[in-house]
Automatic annotation (TrEMBL):
Keyword Zinc set for record: no
SUPFAM superfamilies: Helical backbone' metal receptor
Domain Fe/B12 periplasmic-binding: 24-162
Subcellular localization(s) per the UniProt record: Cell envelope
Alphabetized InterPro entries for the sequence: ABC_transptr_periplasmic_BD (IPR002491), Bact_iron-sidero_bind (IPR051313)
Protein name: Fe/B12 periplasmic-binding domain-containing protein
Coiled coil: none
Family note: Belongs to the bacterial solute-binding protein 8 family.
Residues making up the signal peptide according to the UniProt record: 1-21
Taxonomic path: Bacteria, Pseudomonadati, Pseudomonadota, Gammaproteobacteria, Oceanospirillales
Predominant cellular place of this UniProt entry's protein: other
This protein's UniProt keywords: Ion transport, Iron, Iron transport, Signal, Transport
Organism, as annotated: Vreelandella olivaria
Length: 162
């Protein structure tokens, strides 16, 4: 959790973007919601699973954002009514992929492979590409990687607690 908050803080400190108002994003992936928020794309978010929101993303519980159901139980009718132009989903919603795809174009944001950081980077880049904010995402990822390296160095010098 601390890593996610640190990630958000770093991305927020280094990135802001303007995306055309016609981008309407519904996301079942809270990691991607965190990324959208950090890249300043919060105005484009039209739907989230509100019952699953962590405290640091509580602004998405507001009335102007549609509750699109649970992580394992999408509300297809409400999702459709929110008129998204892109739906972000993970394996948890995989069984509804066909139905979701009838509502709007899809992006599977499940992390693939054994290298978490590489998978995270790939997802951020794909999402940034779809929303035309590649340079802001690269800047934010650069800052994030520098912070990770700083933390690794600090931990390598820490005394063992065994």
């Amino acid at each position: 959790m601390k890593f996610a908050i640190t990630t958000t803080a770093i991305l927020l400190a280094t990135a802001s973007a303007t995306v055309s108002a016609d981008q309407r994003i519904a996301t079942f992936d809270l990691g991607s919601l965190d990324t959208l928020d950090a890249l300043g794309l919060n105005a484009q978010v039209v739907g989230v699973p509100k019952a699953s929101l962590p405290d640091y993303l509580e602004q998405y519980a507001a009335d102007n954002v549609t509750d699109i159901g649970g992580l394992r139980s999408p509300d297809m009718d409400t999702l459709g009514e929110s008129e998204p132009s892109l739906i972000l989903y993970t394996g948890r919603q995989g069984e509804w992929e066909g139905e979701l795809g009838e509502i709007a174009p899809l992006l599977n944001t499940s992390l693939q492979g054994d290298d978490y950081l590489a998978a995270f980077d790939a997802n951020v880049r794909e999402l940034a590409s779809r929303l035309a904010v590649e340079s802001k995402a690269e800047e934010a990822l650069g800052t994030l990687h520098a912070e990770i390296e700083t933390q690794r160095e600090a931990l390598s010098n820490a005394p063992a607690r065994w």
